[in-house]
Specification:
Order of helices and strands of chain B: HHHHHHHHHH
Organism (chain A): Winogradskyella jejuensis
Radius of gyration of chain A: 18 Å
Helix content of chain B: over 70%
Shape of chain A: globular
Helix content of chain A: 25-40%
InterPro entries (chain A): AAA+_ATPase (IPR003593), ABC_transporter-like_ATP-bd (IPR003439), ABC_Transporter_VariousFunc (IPR051782), P-loop_NTPase (IPR027417)
Distance between the termini of chain A: 36 Å
Largest interface: A-B, 27 and 24 residues
GO molecular function (chain A): ATP binding; ATP hydrolysis activity
Number of helices of chain B: 10
Protein name (chain A): Cu-processing system ATP-binding protein
Oligomer: heterodimer
CATH topology of chain A: Rossmann fold
Domain ABC transporter (chain A): 2-226
Strand content of chain B: under 5%
CATH class of chain A: Alpha Beta
Shape of chain B: globular
Number of helices of chain A: 8
CATH architecture of chain A: 3-Layer(aba) Sandwich
Distance between the termini of chain B: 19 Å
Chain lengths: 235, 260
């Protein structure tokens, strides 16, 4: 599905990715974890073609993503910070994205689920952070694409929306999709993820399921296991 | 690309500033015509306004639109759309909506005044063509500046400096160099120097067409002597087209390499 080989990227002098090798072939939920500044968002943006890598191979479904834009039709993406054009109305934005993708989306079901009906005619600039994140989720999840990338999906959501989000992600997983998630909320990751990819200083430091992580770090607590990974590196 | 162009265009058409710009030209055109009662004088006055104001509005609007639509751009980048389509589409959206304000704003009073029965229609047409060229050129330059500068304040400063340089400083330097080197033959130098400034180029283009030798100035006179009116017009139109094409190509090139 996603094949990454020796991916390097630096911003000015700051080397963010230092040779990432990663193969994602399995279906299910893969959590990309790592401390702040470890390159999670850069990695995701490289997969999406928003960040152009300095060197390395990156292919999605067997085709290189260089000078290619159509492969993004296979990917649904939820950006970390929900920034939208402030003078557009919610329904105009949804209609626009559907038009740009040239595909029908199941926006109605998601709008109902997140109770967004009262906000449809409001301008995006006037929405609260949590409501914006819900719109963000609708936009990201309304298309039925085989790969879903969620960058910090839980930010700003209330408990009910969070439950809905977990249900939605599980539904997509049952449909046999590959779902990449980054999150700092360990309980969320532990509950949802089938596999963990741990990034540290621009490289993949650990890849495997939660059980393997726990046995490698000799802990029973997931949060503790992640912390151990970090301290092992420092020791 | 057409879809992006459509959305940018309608986004701008709904904005208050497009109307202010349109109303300004409507007012200017009407005042000039109905107070002056002379089409060709009005065209000359308009030329002076257009060669200064259009570049200013083009650069400011271009930079402003780019920075304001940053979020929109990031949303688009994750969609299956080519990068070049996104940026060229947005650029055309800005440039075309500005050109439309200019053409409609000036066209209405002139049409009401009876332009279509007069001989001045070609002069006026050329004025609009030049205005459109200047909009396309300076919006493209503004997009270039914005693409190279993440920092808004820097981008705006460079944009204003660019305008100031092209509209005011360039002529000053040009004049000073003519004075300093007056004992040398300056014909080819001044023609070359004119080609490097689209504002000068448009001024000469209009004056050549109007055939007012008193207003031509040194460069204009050299231009006319060198190329003759017909060929001079052609050369300046080609040079203006190059001024559009090169910055647009650079938008295309730069946008493919940029990180977001």
């Amino acid at each position: 599905m996603i094949h990454i080989e020796q991916l390097h990227k630096k911003f000015g002098k700051n080397k963010v990715l230092k040779g990432v090798d990663l193969d994602i072939n399995s279906k299910g939920i893969i959590a990309i974890l790592g401390p702040n500044g470890s390159g999670k968002t850069t990695l995701i943006k490289s997969i999406l073609g928003m960040v152009i890598p300095d060197s390395g191979v990156l292919s999605v479904n067997g085709t290189s993503i260089k000078k290619n834009s159509q492969y993004r039709d296979q990917i649904d993406y939820l950006p970390q910070i929900a920034n939208f054009p402030a003078n557009l109305k919610v329904k105009e934005l949804i209609a626009m994205i559907k038009d740009l993708r040239n595909r029908p989306g199941e926006d109605h079901r998601l709008i109902q689920l997140f109770k967004l009906e009262p906000f449809l005619s409001k301008k995006l600039g006037n929405l609260s952070g949590g409501t914006k994140q819900k719109v963000n989720l609708v936009l990201a999840l309304m298309f039925d694409s085989p790969i879903i990338i969620l960058d910090e999906p839980t930010t700003g959501l209330d408990p009910i929306a969070l439950i809905h989000l977990k249900e939605l992600i599980s539904e997509e997983k049952v449909k046999g999709k590959t779902i990449l998630i980054t999150s700092h909320i360990m309980s969320f990751v532990e509950e949802m993820a089938d596999e963990i990819v741990f990034l540290l200083e621009g490289k993949v430091y650990f890849k495997g399921n939660i059980g393997a992580l726990k046995s490698q770090t000799e802990t029973t607590n997931f949060e503790q296991a992640i912390a151990n990974l970090l301290t092992q590196e420092n020791a | 690309m057409l879809k992006i162009l459509k959305y940018s265009f309608f986004d701008l058409i709904r904005s208050r500033w497009s109307y202010v710009y349109l109303l300004f030209y409507l007012g200017l055109g009407s005042v000039l015509l109905f107070l002056n009662n002379d089409l060709s004088k009005a065209v000359i006055t308009l030329m002076n306004v257009i060669t200064i104001l259009v570049p200013l509005i083009g650069t400011i609007f271009g930079v402003m639109y780019y920075y304001n639509s940053k979020e929109f751009t990031e949303l688009l980048l994750a969609q299956p759309i080519k990068r070049s389509s996104i940026f060229i589409g947005q650029y055309l959206g800005v440039a075309l909506s500005l050109s439309m304000s200019l053409i409609i704003g000036l066209g209405i009073p002139f049409a009401l005044y009876g332009l279509f029965q007069s001989d001045e229609i070609w002069d006026f047409g050329l004025l609009l063509v030049t205005g459109t060229f200047l909009t396309l050129i300076f919006t493209a330059l503004a997009f270039n500046i914005a693409l190279y500068n993440e920092n808004k304040i820097k981008g705006f400063s460079y944009a204003i400096l660019l305008w100031l340089f092209m509209a005011v400083i360039y002529d000053g330097l040009f004049l000073m160099s003519l004075v300093a080197f007056q004992s040398y033959p300056l014909d080819s130098f001044s023609i070359g120097a004119t080609m490097f400034n689209p504002i000068d180029l448009s001024r000469i283009l209009i004056l050549l067409k109007l055939d007012i030798s008193a207003l031509l100035g040194y460069t204009g006179a050299v231009f006319q002597k060198f190329f003759g009116t017909g060929f001079g017009l052609l050369i300046s139109i080609v040079a203006l087209s190059l001024w559009v094409v090169l910055p647009v190509l650079n938008i295309y090139r730069k946008s493919r390499k940029k990180d977001f």
